[in-house]
Each structure stands twice: as structure tokens, then as C-alpha cells.
Amino acid sequence: MSSPIVLSGIELAAELNAATAARAAALPFTPTLATVLVGDDPGSTKYVQMKQRRCREHGLGSRHVHLPADTSTAELVAVLIELGADPAVHGILLQHPLPSQIDERAAFDAIPLLKDVDGTSSAAFAAAALGQPGHRSCTPAGIIRLLDHYDVELAGVDVTIVGRSAILGKPLAAMLTARDATVTVCHSRTRDLAAHTRRAEILVAAAGRPGLITAEMVRPGAVVVDAGFTPGDVAPDAAEVASAITPVPGGVGPMTVAMLLSQTVDAAEAV
After folding, report:
1. Residues whose CB is less than 8 angstroms from the CB of residue 112 and which lie 6 or more positions away in sequence, other chains included
2. Is 118 a catalytic residue?
């Protein structure tokens, strides 16, 4: 088989970011994203700093709230409610994962739907599942935007998603179903994972397990989306059988941040 098409997100994210910057500049105020970080996890700190930098680069304001690692659910919820009531804040991002003592669902659900630009609340998930207005979970939305850009057909296609997280696998399944794909969601309890992945015309690896998906688990000619962190959930040999594949880094990651900024401006425009 010839080399697969590389589904790069870098160029598309740059286009989306340029459009976002133009929309932000057209507003009579500065669209502002508030980031909330609990604790000092190095990875989370790095991601928040990167998102703040991207805001500055594209004409958005940023506000950061850093809470100690022993913050309680009630304390975190109070902060999120305060940000939700602040008219100068248009979007709120609660960086995850959160410390073990935090009730994540209670925290995410404290973010008002109109300011939930990361699409993590129960209301945002319901809106995505029912096709109602609302901000979509950024990584799934970025994946679909990337597939559309490369003219990957979704309607009627068999899609397998490996991973069922509340911020990726589950909302992506809902969004793909809304686009008329036939979706299978696999997880840690799935029996014979390879039997499911080999049926997929589009295979999305989102389990957070590096190298989980190998060549023998991929249907020849499938489109493979690697939503894992570096080095990725898809082993290098999978490229030998795929017709198209997202790189790690440079595939899904840039699209996630671009969608976050775009949805922050969406929220500001709706004020």
C-alpha cells in the first residue's frame, strides 16, 4: 500500500486561528478566556500556559486562577460561579485532570453553558447529543473539523472509537452519530478489541495508552485518528495499512486549541 495521507492539523488550525483573531478584533471589547488550574501538575501547568499564550497571540484576553492542590469541591465551585457571573469573562476552561478529592462532575457543571467553551459540562454534552445550540467539546469538535477539511465521508461510515472519556470518546460518539455515522465505542472492558477495530472505516484512538493500536488491528485503507498524547495511541506500523492518519504531534492537538479560541469568540459574540 502507498504511503497514507497525513491529516495535519497545523495548517488548518492556523487558518482557524487567523479567522478567530479577525473576529476578535471586530468586537468592541476583548473576548476573554479564564483558565482555572487546581494544583501544580507539570503537564497541566504547561497546557494552561500554552493556552494563555495562544490567547495573547490571537487577540484574546486571558485571566488565570491558580488554586492550591488541597482545594475542596465547594471552594472550586465557588470560584467557577464567580467567574460565570463576571461579564468581563466570556469563556471558562477548567484544566483537567483534577485532584482526587474534587468532584469533577460538580465542578464542570458549575460552569454556565454559555461560557463552557471547552464543552465539559453535562449541559454541553446533552446539547451535543441532541443537536442543540451550545459549545462542543474541543477535541471531538477539532477531530470532526479535521475530517471535514480532508473530505473524509462520515455519513453511513463505520467508526470505532477506542476510549470513552467524558471529554473525548463519549461526546465524539454523539457528534459522529449526529453526522449519520455508525459508531462503536470500545473501552477497557471490551472483549476482543481488535475484532472491533478491524471493522472500522474510521478508527479513533483515544484511550491514553501509547502504542495501543498496531497495524494488525487496523482495517486496510482505514482512516486512523490518533487522539493520544505524544508519542500517541497508534503504533508507527499502523501507517503501513491506513489510507490516512493524523500525526502526533501536529494532528489533533493544534485543532483542540484552535476550537477553544474559536468558541471563546463565539461566546463573546453572543453577549
Report:
1. 84, 92
2. yes
* Residue 41 is among the residues annotated as catalytic for this protein: no
Q: Of the residues 51, 170, 226, 233, which is catalytic?
A: 51
The count of residues in the chain is 271
Q: pTM (2 decimals)?
A: 0.95
Q: How far is residue 234's CA from residue 74's CA, in Å, rounded to a whole number?
A: 39
Sheet holding 5-6, edge to edge: 5-6, 244-245, 223-226, 202-205, 158-162, 182-186
- Can you say whether the dihedral through the CA atoms of 117, 119, 124, 130 is positive or negative? positive
pLDDT single digits (tens) 89-137: 999 999 999 999 999 999 999 999 999 999 999 999 999 989 899 999 9
Q: Which of 52, 95, 116, 226 is catalytic?
A: 95
CA distance 5 to 90: 37
Active site residue 51: yes
Annotated binding residues: 163-165
Nine cell digits for residue 266: 463565539
Binding-site positions for NADP(+) read 163-165
d(CA 65, CA 85): 15
Catalytic residue among 118, 226, 233, 266: 118
